[in-house]
Amino acid sequence: MNTLLDFSDRLYLDVADFAHSTPHWFQWLAEVWTEAGLLLFGVLFLAGWWRSRDGKSGAMALALLAPLATAFGYVVSEAFKSLVDEERPCRAVAGAPASLVACPPHGDWSFPSNHSAIAGAAAIALALSWRGIVWLTVPMALLMAFSRVFVGVHYPHDVTVGLLVGALVAFLVMKAAERPVRSLVETARSSRNPAVSWCAGRGPAAHAAAHAPAHSERPSRARHGAY
């Protein structure tokens, strides 16, 4: 165990030294991404919900579950954090350069990384609800996890465990809750409350009917003759 922690310390120092060798604009991008990535995941949740409004009830159920599963990933990560009082590396690692962002105060523990847990959960939840987007969400999550080490506020093992915990929890929540949430979506789509039905979407049948071409019923002179 001590060997693994020593390795994590050395790896943290290597990343911190690398961070301080990069241009200021690159450091600024890392500082922005470590927080802005969370906002981008939020935008993707909204986009996933919007694109599912005319889709099947199962697709809408997964779109609605994605942010909920991500929230569960954060809660589990925070529970682990309260059990493991690991000091932040920006305060605990001897000889480490100053972190690029302010080192969180004592008591804001390091293990696991909540940012990474949220990113891992969001990446998997979106991938399950939006076919093909995994090629965007997984690199986003990995970059966010790396950025937490890059800016100096987490060990590598913090972000690794955070990613895994978040992804696992999100996967389990999405699979376990898909069927009951799909039933709720079907009920909401038949609701007479316009706000509820708008949020749940019309579904593919209503969408197809709304966009069906109007056929003319005017009789043809060629078929019926002129009078």
TrEMBL record:
Protein keywords: Cell membrane, Hydrolase, Membrane, Transmembrane, Transmembrane helix
Coiled-coil regions listed in the entry: none
Topology within the bilayer: Multi-pass membrane protein
Transmembrane segment boundaries: 32-50, 57-76, 109-128, 159-177
Gene3D superfamilies: Phosphatidic acid phosphatase type 2/haloperoxidase
Entry's localization field: Cell membrane
A Pfam cross-reference name: PAP2
Presence of keyword Hydrolase: yes
SMART domains referenced in this protein's UniProt entry, alphabetically: acidPPc
Primary location group: membrane
Any Gene Ontology CC annotation: plasma membrane
UniProt GO molecular function: hydrolase activity
Protein name: Membrane protein
High-level lineage: Bacteria, Bacillati, Actinomycetota, Actinomycetes, Kitasatosporales
